[in-house]
Amino acid sequence: MTALEFSYKVDQLTSSLKPFALKLTKDMEDANDLLQETVLKAFTNRDKFAEGTNLKAWMYTIMKNTFITNYQRMVRRNTFIDTTENLHYINSSDSIIQNKAHTNFAMKDINNAIDNLQDSYKVPFMMHFRGFKYHEIADKLNIPIGTVKNRIHIARKELKSKLKVYGKK
């Protein structure tokens, strides 16, 4: 295949490669960059294309591999390598240190709120929380299933009211 024929066929394929690039990158500018890089690699490696094989599949493979390589490069760029003897890999975006004091206070408040529920609401609620199904709770406590659902609902409502300070902001 001559260079002119190869160029013509690659040019014909760019319109079908663009949606694939957009699907991979989910951004129009990145998709255009990926398409451009794919076409450049195809022209650079034209001698490696075996005539008689599927050019479209070859181009899709180049695009997919280019995307994967770029993605891995981006991930590596965002990772610090600790050169101490422990050789830890630390992602820079996850390097926030918290002392969990807020969590400890919240758990203490949640436990206090649950402890202050009436037993008729607390017992079914805690059983449901531990994974029991409504019918199992009803059988164990010897009460109707509707009562179980109602008591769990009321317990949740009371807890939500008592713990509203921890609600969405």
Automatic annotation (TrEMBL):
Which NCBIfam families does the UniProt entry name for this protein?
sigma70-ECF (TIGR02937)
Which Gene Ontology BP terms does the record give? Answer: DNA-templated transcription initiation
Q: Does the keyword Transcription regulation apply?
A: yes
Q: Which InterPro entries match?
A: RNA_pol_sigma-70-like (IPR039425), RNA_pol_sigma-70_dom (IPR014284), RNA_pol_sigma70_r2 (IPR007627), RNA_pol_sigma70_r4_t2 (IPR013249), RNA_pol_sigma_r2 (IPR013325), RNA_pol_sigma_r3/r4-like (IPR013324), WH-like_DNA-bd_sf (IPR036388)
Start and end residues of each RNA polymerase sigma-70 region domain: 16-73
Name of the protein: RNA polymerase sigma-70 factor (ECF subfamily)
Q: Which GO terms describe its molecular function?
A: DNA binding; sigma factor activity
What is the protein's species of origin?
Answer: Marinoscillum furvescens DSM 4134
